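Researcher: Structure prediction, please.
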Amino acid sequence: MRLVRDILIMILMVLIQAYFFDELLFFRYLNPYLYVYVVFSILIRYPRFWQLIMAFALGGFLDILEGSSGIHAGAAVFIAFAQPMLKGFWGPNREDTDDVPSLASMSMDRRLGFLFTAFFLHHFALFSLEQFGFGNFVDLLKQTFYSSLFSFTFVLLYQLWNARR
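Model: Predicted structure follows.
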């Protein structure tokens, strides 16, 4: 039952991303990519192999809807692949009890660091694949940082809203 619910959430996030968030573009650098949050909030519960497969499917479906030639699939698989390293760096310490990062199981500074680093790495991979190189590295970093911060802010507000409930 949990798998069906998670797949429905993934489909919903892809549809919201493709038809709502991709229409938002502020100041040429700000575009929230919130579908990535599914990779490190829902897929973290599954075995490693299924994380990579589901991340590929998530990004692939978004690529199909956007016609973006596989850049979202590549970036989603990259962040799913890098997630264990991020969990090891930012993950639970002795005071934290749960293995799944959440506001309830991690200290606030670790959770925020994990989220921002994951968003930054995803956006860097996404925009690098989009530009197909590092020719204009300063613009790439600027776009990565601002979009990561924008996406991070949306997810932070969602996390704080859920923590209060």
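Model: The chain has a mean pLDDT of 81.
Researcher: Thanks, that helps.
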